[in-house]
Amino acid sequence: MSFASTTLYLLWENLLFFTGATLFLAVVGLGWKSTKPFELPTPLPSWFKIWFLTVQLLGGVLPILVIFLWGIWWHYQQVLIVLGAYLIMLVLQIIAEIVTLRVFHSVVWVMVPYVYLPYRVWQLYEGLRLFDFNGELIWMRYLLILEIVVWIANYCLDLSQLPFLLRWEVGGETKKSESEPSSTT
User: Where are the alpha helices (DSSP H) in the chain?
Assistant: First the structure.
């Protein structure tokens, strides 16, 4: 595929995904509009800051640095195509999270990563498939594989935090009224 046709293909694919994801989250948001406003549980786990910084550095800063150096400075179009589409969708996910959490205070916020992260992994995998990375760009394959591992780990971590985010009772905790007999005085 040529640069122009690959770019057009990825543009349409990303536009279709973004439209579908936005419509899905809007419909779910309408269906759940009667739920009470959602606030992030506090305090956040102590390890969260470390993981969040790791994801920001590996998933955001590193690809931006690669785009500026190899995509813009050294004119490798493959880097611009793959990481440009990736970063655009990452920014759109962050916007969707901000809007659902801060503007609408909706529990739909919890669903945003579950919609966007599998697509992000697909984008990165597709980047591996679409391009024949020559000897000069073989490291780009390793970067894409690293990004896939980071986002799969993040997805698993998100799944493990569902009880915390949705304030589910965990592990044998019972309400005081259920476990203690009432006294009549």
Answer: 3-31, 47-56, 62-66, 77-98, 112-130, 138-160, 162-165, 176-179
Environment class of 86 (CB within 10 Å of its CB; exposed 0-12, middle 13-18, buried 19+): buried
CB–CB of 5/13 below 8 Å? no
What's the pTM?
0.83
Q: Measured between alpha carbons, how far is residue 86 from residues 67, 89, 151, 155 in Å?
A: 11, 5, 12, 16
Residue-wise pLDDT for 154-183, tens only, equals 999 888 887 777 766 666 554 444 444 444
b/e code 89-100 from CB counts within 10 Å (16+ = b): bbebbeebbebb
pLDDT digits (tens, 9 = 90+) for 60-71: 999 999 999 988
Spell out the residues 6+ positions from residue 71 whose beta carbon is closer than 8 angstroms to its own: 77, 79, 80, 83, 84
Distance between CA atoms of 94 and 88, rounded to whole angstroms? Answer: 10
DSSP code of 127? H
CA–CA distance, 178 with 117 (Å, rounded to integer): 39
| Torsion angle of C-alpha atoms 76, 81, 83, 88, degrees rounded to 10 | 140
Closest by Cα among 27, 48, 153, 26 to 99: 26
